[in-house]
Amino acid sequence: MARLTTIGFDADDTLWENEHFFRLTHAHFAELLADYAEPDVLSRTLLETEMRNLARYGFGIKGFTLSMIETAIEVTGGKVPGAVIGRIVNAGREMLAHPVDTLPNVHETLETMTRDHTLVLITKGDLFDQERKLAQSGLGEFFDAVEIVSDKTASTYRSAFARHGTGPEAAMMVGNSLRSDVIPAIEAGGWGTHVPHTLTWDYERAEPPVEAERFNAIGSLAQLPGLVETLKG
Amino acid sequence: MARLTTIGFDADDTLWENEHFFRLTHAHFAELLADYAEPDVLSRTLLETEMRNLARYGFGIKGFTLSMIETAIEVTGGKVPGAVIGRIVNAGREMLAHPVDTLPNVHETLETMTRDHTLVLITKGDLFDQERKLAQSGLGEFFDAVEIVSDKTASTYRSAFARHGTGPEAAMMVGNSLRSDVIPAIEAGGWGTHVPHTLTWDYERAEPPVEAERFNAIGSLAQLPGLVETLKG
Which residues contact A202 (CB under 8 A, 6 or more apart)? Predict the structure, then answer.
């Protein structure tokens, strides 16, 4: 097989907790609007609002906060009190200050993999927030490059792995999102390795590309060095 | 002098209109809250809120929209109607869809400068929004690299000009902000060229570094090729 020179890592819910904080905020949001909307109607409206706004806001917490505000106005027919909106703004701001909880085995895996590979962090979301999380995680030293991108498509991986490695054919993308990490990396000509997280945003779900030769799934990042060895063997 | 190999360009209010749209939204915001606050009190509160939030939101329209909402809640003591908040959200979203109005002489200047120099676009703000504007501007083809950064400090320019050029000593940054474009580029060891715009956000103001050898000011981008020739002569 072609040499595997470069490994791309997703960040949110691959290296550190993220969806967990969205879920907490979600629950808080449902409480704030309990007098106005059933939790499942609220959830559905919020997801619809988020999807509609992606084309305008892109991914990230600031866009999510604006979508919560819009949803609150919509489900209350404009009657939501200003003070409740203020609490939603605060909830969004608290998310931007949440601690960075590194997932198990991340440190050891990066330490091992960085010895023989070019490591690239490839993440979407708010530029400023992702930089903060990377700095707080203390994981920056393991990476040869960091790409904070507005979306993750095959073309994202083609150019990231060309710029920082030796092209997508010699690269593997590792992440918890089939839709954003695994499938487009395989489409770009690379390997795609899925490391599922117990919490995954509906948007990121997709059918695993089980037919693809370069698709793999591992239960934990701890299995990555072993998988890469096997591929080389 | 050292050879000038690389030229960095700011984008907002250097290549295309930006502050203009903020001012329009500002005026709209003041109208929406005319029953609750004097325009100058509102302006002052909004600027204070923006400054306080920079450390959390960074630069860009989404953070600005959230700061407008927070200000509306603050100046009304929480009494702002949900419908007014809805209009503020819409105003922010409209900014994210505003047309890209290229400033005079931009096209010709970039076309001339790209022949003999590496051109790098260095801009801050929302990643997604800046990518949209660059795509709509049609100016992407003139640039060898694009850096969308969370802030513009001397260290930003040191690394951007090392990555895409031959180091800051051989680079010039061109922009309308003394604070973000000119002063930190000079601090990094490069040239800083100020192209003032009639509208400049208070945050971006600073004393021109008139003592600095590598500081220049030009009235229009059309003067840039001439200035660069002089420096080489």
Answer: A47
Contact at CB, B72 and A79, closer than 8 angstroms: no
CB-based burial of residue A230 (10 Å sphere; 0-12 exposed, 13-18 middle, 19+ buried)? exposed
- State residue A199's pLDDT score: 85
Give the whole-number percent of chain B exceeding pLDDT 90. 87
Is B181 domain-assigned? yes
B47 and B111 co-located in one domain: no
B168: exposed, middle or buried (Cβ count in 10 Å: 0-12, 13-18, 19+): buried
Q: Which of B44, B72, B95 is the last residue of a domain?
A: B95
Same domain as A133, residue A228 = yes
Residue with tokens 């054919």: A169
**Sheet architecture: strand order including B6-9:** B145-149, B118-124, B6-9, B171-175, B191-194, B215-217
Contacts of A73 in chain B (CB under 8 A): 82-83, 85-86, 89
Q: Are A126 and A163 in contact (CB under 8 A)?
A: no
Of all residues in chain A, the one with the smallest CA distance to B61 is A57
Q: Does residue A60 come out as left (phi exceeding 0), alpha (psi in the -120 to 50 range) or beta?
A: left
The ipTM, to two decimals, is 0.88
pTM: 0.90
